[in-house]
Write a structure and sequence with these properties.
The chain is of the alpha+beta class and 141 residues long. The protein has one domain (3-139): Histidine kinase-like ATPase, C-terminal domain (Heat Shock Protein 90), CATH 3.30.565.10. The chain is built from 5 helices and 5 strands, in the order E-H-H-E-E-H-H-H-E-E. Helix 1 (21-32) packs antiparallel against helix 2 (37-57) and helix 2 (37-57) packs antiparallel against helix 5. The two termini are 14 Å apart.
Length: 141
């Protein structure tokens, strides 16, 4: 499968001022590449959710967008505490967000469920004390 485009965005922990800039840029770039409709909407939702998770829960990380002929892929990787209980973390409403995030209106516990719901393929790998990698793919056809 041929890679058409790739860009990586560094995301800083607890940087609520710039939170959402990477996902906004991803949406703009995908529009420029001709991705639209339902796929664009689903990628936009998932990229925003994963970017906010990097800001809220981790010690920083990166979000990588890759566009292939037949799919868009988002990979989020971080250095952080990891997720101790993945099945619990995937439950709607479950959140480990801190008070700062909650006071700003984030941390409702919908991030991971929204990512999974919007992606055609969703994989999450996490190791406590090391970090988490989330891979999402969205078919273009």
């Amino acid at each position: 499968m041929e890679e058409l485009f790739r860009i990586t965005y560094p995301v800083k922990a607890a940087d609520y001022v710039t939170a959402g800039q990477a996902s906004t840029d991803i949406k703009r770039k995908l529009k420029q590449l001709g991705v639209g409709g339902d796929v664009l909407r689903r990628v936009a939702v998932a990229s925003y959710e994963v970017e906010l998770n990097l800001v809220i829960h981790y010690l920083g990380g990166e979000l990588c967008l890759t566009v292939f002929e037949d799919a868009v892929q988002l990979v989020s990787s971080d250095v952080g505490p990891g997720i101790a209980d993945l099945s619990m973390a995937m439950r709607e409403g479950f959140s480990t967000a801190n008070e700062e995030a909650r006071s700003l209106g984030f941390g409702a516990g919908m991030g991971l469920p929204n990512m999974k719901r919007n992606a055609d393929e969703f994989d999450i790998q996490s190791e406590v004390g090391k970090g988490t990698t989330i891979t999402m793919r969205f078919r273009l056809s």
